[in-house]
Design goal:
- The structure holds two protein chains of two kinds.
- By secondary structure, chain A is an all-beta fold.
- Helices cover 0% and strands 48% of the residues of chain A.
- Chain A is built from no helices and eleven strands.
- In chain A, the strands form two sheets. In chain A, strands 2, 4, 5, 6, 9, 10 and 11 form a seven-stranded mixed beta sheet that branches. A four-stranded antiparallel beta sheet of chain A has the order 1-3-8-7, with no helix packed on it.
- Chain B contains no helices and twelve strands.
- Chain B is globular and about 45 Å long.
- In chain B, 38% of the residues are buried.
- The chains are: A mainly beta, B mainly beta.
Chain lengths: 114, 112
């Protein structure tokens, strides 16, 4: 069973507010990812990290930022939320040791900006 | 660069009938292949994976997928589906970069 947690599960917030989506994993994985998924649509990688103090932008441009100060924690921040940021955000982690190559996903945060 | 194509956006099928969800990929390097399942308002759960060895891989709930290198495919099959299999299914690839590339997903709807 995957031990990766996202909070909050659902968030409705007004335009212009600053928000932070939390993601934590207890598996000691060095690699972590943020994906954005619109309803019924594919997943787009927006940020990834290969370890502490390592973050990279993904394939889909995003106005969000991330940090990786601790191995287990990979929060995503939006300085000023807009309706265009309404989406589901999925956090994942992976290890790549032996036959463990898959990504483990959290339950997701569904963000609605009004 | 890698890419994944899932040609079928929706697949309706009657309960107890067989189903195949198609996945094709492109890559210039060796890849690992995955199928994930997503239920409404949930994250993705790993269904099965291909790393190396036997080209036929199976999951604990009756799904199987076959890696075909010459056709660059990794189709998912189940001989008899249940109502509870209704979900979104995603095919994914990764290589040494450890970035996962996902297909657009296939919505499997099992009809009573």
């Amino acid at each position: 069973e995957a031990d990766i947690y996202q909070t909050p599960r659902y968030l409705v917030i007004g335009t212009g507010k600053k928000i932070t989506l939390e993601c934590s994993q207890t598996m000691g994985h060095d690699k972590m990812y943020w994906y954005q998924q619109d309803p019924g649509m594919e997943l787009h990688l927006i940020h990834y990290s290969y370890g502490v103090n390592s973050t990279e932008k993904g394939d889909l441009s995003s106005e969000s930022t991330v940090s990786r100060i601790r191995t287990e924690h990979f929060p995503l921040t939006l300085e000023s939320a807009r309706p265009s940021h309404t989406s589901q955000y999925l956090c994942a982690s992976s290890e790549h040791k032996g036959r463990s190559t898959e990504a483990f996903f959290g339950q997701g945060t569904r963000l609605t900006v009004v | 660069a890698q890419s994944v194509t899932q040609l079928d956006s929706q697949v309706p099928v009657f309960e107890e009938a067989p189903v195949e969800l198609r996945c094709n990929y492109s890559s210039s390097v060796s890849v690992y292949l995955f199928w994930y399942v997503q239920y409404p308002n949930q994250g993705l759960q790993l269904l099965l994976k291909y790393l190396s060895g036997s080209t036929l891989v199976e999951s604990i709930n009756g799904f199987e997928a076959e890696f075909n290198k010459s056709q660059t495919s990794f189709h998912l099959r189940k001989p008899s589906v249940h109502i509870s299999d209704t979900a979104e299914y995603f095919c994914a690839v990764t290589s040494g970069t450890y970035k996962y590339i996902f297909g657009t997903g296939t919505r499997l709807k099992v009809l009573a």
